[in-house]
Amino acid sequence: MMSGEIIKSLIVPAHPHPVLCPEKNEGWQRVRDAFDEARKQIEETDADLIIIYSTLWPSVIGHQIQADPNPEWVMVDADFHDLGSIHYSLKIDTEFANAWNEANIARGLESRTVSYQGFPIDVGSVVALELLNPGNRIPAVICSTNVYSNRAETTVLAKACMDVVKAQGKKAVAVSVMSLSNRMFTEPIKPEEDRIHSLKDDEWNQKILEFLSEGRLEDIGQLSRTIHDQIRVKKVVAFKPMWWLSAMNDNRNDLSGNVLAYEPIHGAGAAVVVLDPESNGTGDKEYDEDDVEFYGGDRGVLDSAESKSNASPSNSGPELYDPVEGKNAVNTNKAPKPVGAYPHARREGDLIYLSGVGPRQPGDNSIPGGPIKDSNGNPLNYDIKAQTRAVVDNISRILEEAGSSLDKVIDVTSFLVDMDRDFAGYNQVWAETLGKVGPTRTTLAIRALPTPIAVEMKVIAKI
Amino acid sequence: MAKGSIVAGCLAPHPPHLVYAENPEQNEPVSEGGWEQLRWGYERLRESLKDVDYDVIVILSPHWQTYIGTHFIGVEKCVSKSVDPVFPNLFRFNYDLTIDVELAKAIHDQAKSEGMSVKMMENPDFRVDYGTLVSCHMVRPEWDKPIVSISSNRSLSYYSVEVMQEMMLELGRSTAKAIEESGKKCLLIASNSLSHRHFVTETNPPEDMSKEHITSHAMHLWDMRMIELMRQGKSQQIIDEMPEFCEQAIAETDGGALTWILSAMGVPSEPAILHGYGTIIGTGNAIMEWPCRTWGDE
What we know:
The complex is a heterodimer of chains A (463) and B (298). Chain A has 463 residues and is of the alpha/beta class. Chain A is built from eleven helices and 16 strands. Chain A folds into two domains: 272 residues, 3-Layer(aba) Sandwich (Protocatechuate 4,5-dioxygenase, Chain B); 158 residues, CATH 3.30.1330.40. In chain A, the strands form four sheets. Chain A has a six-stranded mixed beta sheet, with helices on both faces. A six-stranded mixed beta sheet of chain A has the order 11-12-13-16-14-15, covered by helices on one side. Chain A has a two-stranded parallel sheet with strand order 3-6. The two termini of chain A are 18 Å apart. Chain B has one domain: Protocatechuate 4,5-dioxygenase, Chain B.
């Protein structure tokens, strides 16, 4: 449990040429060969999941995750239909897909699964799985790209995915399906005439690949908006996959990168890149954008003001304190600030005692699932399950800071402000998380908590 | 052979919500209705076309997006299922339609002779896009007319609205000329919304009309402005203002369909009939008809 990880990350192109006609152009054949090499590298690992983030599956209602256990159909490219058809029959890890969807929602994202006979799997995902995973040796999961999502949302999407990778102990391969420069020729060309559309596109592509070969994935993430402005035709989705892939790799800059191929496909930049998690020894670079754990964007715009589910910082209640330092105190900036003069936790012997932990988020003090009332005291609708998950996540972070972990929790006292309304949801999340560890538990109904939250837990764990 | 003609041009938006709300037997999901303002608008359009004699529907849809020129379906029988990748919960439509390949090829050839980048789509596995299916179904649910399906050349993405319009104006002229030479009576459909900013959440059920409205006042103002221009027959002004409209209203006219249809009708100064307006998940949608059949031969 809690041992899942990304064991390999890939960037692969989306065009059907490497599947349907690699022999027509030496460069297309080299892309195909690179796909084959990447496939062999995957087969040499103990990977048990391939996670696809495809820029060719745009979505509007949040993110969509494919959950049909066996999508089957015939794919024909909208532009390159004359190259032929690709019959696909894929194997989807539906348990992971459903869990990822729930994790997205728990982190404040709009998300849903799709499972419909005849659903049109996008060309990028079909090509990637056809070449990297022939015969469905490894189950896969496919996620859409939301056309309106920003970096924060895309980062949180990856973190939610990693929540499930870790919880399910997966050895996962993360795949971004995308072109580098994406400007194609607007006229048909002969295969032998193919080249990168412009020198500028080629120079930028080379720079991207230089960074990736040095394992500087997060730097590419931070350059994404610039890259999009410089060499990307403004199609449906922006240059977002690097945000996702970087967050899937803990925003690191010291991965081991290997560019297996870089060739033009009808003018666009097609690269096959493999990134391994082993540090390349050059040291990590500075990460200078705000990292974000939960999405608090414009979701819920259809809701009335009375039922908005997301908290604003102004709803977060009383004055906050820096956690009290002192002998045996354990504090972390990964947990919300206290509402009084006390530490996050305190070690005594081989035990650690946590102060009451709620769902507020470190940094912006927002409340996943929404506050229970507004600043005027008017009750609001809220999601007890999202709040409870956030409590457990905060507990986990404090325990990790102390050198402990969730699986060492031995006793919990829970406080609910509305037992009738919330016990079932709270209990469900408990069963999915701490319930699997097996600590003793006492649940109390109380009138109120200092901040507009519905649940708090008091924890004792072993170190 | 008598000259072919355009009997009417229609702006016929394609959000799949409309077919979902109609509950036709071809569509798998079942709804409680919804978006009645627009569906009644389509009723009025169908009533207006009820006694109009025509041979074929020619439609340009922004949901068959091509980046290497304009494409035309060149397969006579298209039988399959279309699942909307964005709203698969609403639209899983079993279709059986006939393509007028002869007319499609004629428009293709005429456009090619004018220097345009064009291509026939002859792969029998190709699935017809949901925009084409929704608009055609709402205009003619009997599915008893062959269609010509034209892709949306995304030249806007590569160049600008101005270049996109130059191409669509040419495609419109080529369409009109090919139709005239074909001797066929054609109904033209531009399949697109007006303002096109979506909500990113969905109500439960999706047809909960208490939550349906335009995304912003600015979008409303742009929609009303464009509808007024259409009602006043100011087609040239629509084309002139198209760059600002596309940019500021994130308008789906960026796919070229409206410019194409205006060009095919000769950039008419005759007024269009407004059959309905409504919003769908925040986007603005108008059902318009240009009754070309009543305009005479100049």
